[in-house]
Design goal:
three-stranded antiparallel β-sheet, Jelly Rolls, 175 residues
C-alpha cells in the first residue's frame, strides 16, 4: 500500500494521488480483523490540520463504536460494502433515530450527512462494514465528545452488553 502506518488503526496517504480498490479493501479487512478494536482507517488527507478529512474506514462485526458527537463539525458517510445501523441519540442517551445503512441496491440508506453535534454510533450487522467518511478539519481530539452514559472501551463486558441491548432496540426502530 502507498500509506504510512501511524498505529494499528490508522494509515495515512503518502502520495498526493490516492486510490483505493478491491485489493486495498481486502488488505484493510485483514488488518481490521487482526486489530484489538476491530477497525482500521485510511486517511486520504495527509495531515490532521488539513481542512478536509476523507477516510475509508473498515469496521468488523462486533466492533464497539462508543457513542460520540463532534463539536463544530459536519460528517458524511457513504457506504461501500456491508450493513450497519447508524443510531442517533438525544443528549440523555435515548435513541431518536436508527438508519439502516447498506450499499446501493440493498434497499437500505447508502448515505447520510450529520450537520449538528448529535451523539451517534454504528452497529455493524455484517462481517465487514466499509464506508467513506468525510468531515471538516482540522482534527482536534477534544472536539470529539464521548457520551457519558455509554461505557468506555476499557470495560469490554459493559461495552458488549451495551452493544447487544442497543442492537435489540435498533432492530425495532430502523428506517
Amino acid at each position: 500500500m502507498r500509506f504510512q502506518r501511524l498505529n494499528d488503526e490508522v494509515l495515512v496517504a503518502t502520495e498526493p494521488l490516492v486510490w483505493i480498490g478491491e485489493e486495498e479493501i481486502a488488505e484493510l479487512k485483514t488488518l481490521a480483523a487482526a486489530n484489538l478494536r476491530r477497525r482500521i482507517r485510511i486517511c486520504a488527507h495527509s495531515e490532521p490540520k488539513d481542512r478536509l478529512h476523507e477516510m475509508l474506514i473498515v469496521h468488523v462485526e462486533g466492533a464497539y463504536i462508543r457513542p460520540h458527537k463532534h463539536l463544530g463539525k459536519s460528517e458524511s458517510v457513504h457506504v461501500i460494502e456491508g450493513e450497519a445501523d447508524a443510531v442517533f441519540f438525544d443528549d440523555a442517551g435515548t435513541p431518536e433515530k436508527v438508519l439502516a445503512l447498506g450499499p446501493y441496491g440493498s434497499a437500505r440508506r447508502l448515505y447520510y450527512r450529520l450537520d449538528e453535534p448529535v451523539y451517534h454510533t454504528l452497529l455493524v450487522n455484517s462481517e465487514f462494514f466499509v464506508m467513506h467518511e468525510v468531515t471538516n478539519g482540522p482534527f482536534w481530539r477534544e472536539e470529539t465528545v464521548f457520551a457519558p452514559w455509554a461505557p468506555a472501551e476499557a470495560d469490554g463486558q459493559a461495552c458488549e452488553r451495551f452493544r447487544l441491548e442497543l442492537s435489540r432496540l435498533a432492530r425495532g426502530a430502523r428506517r
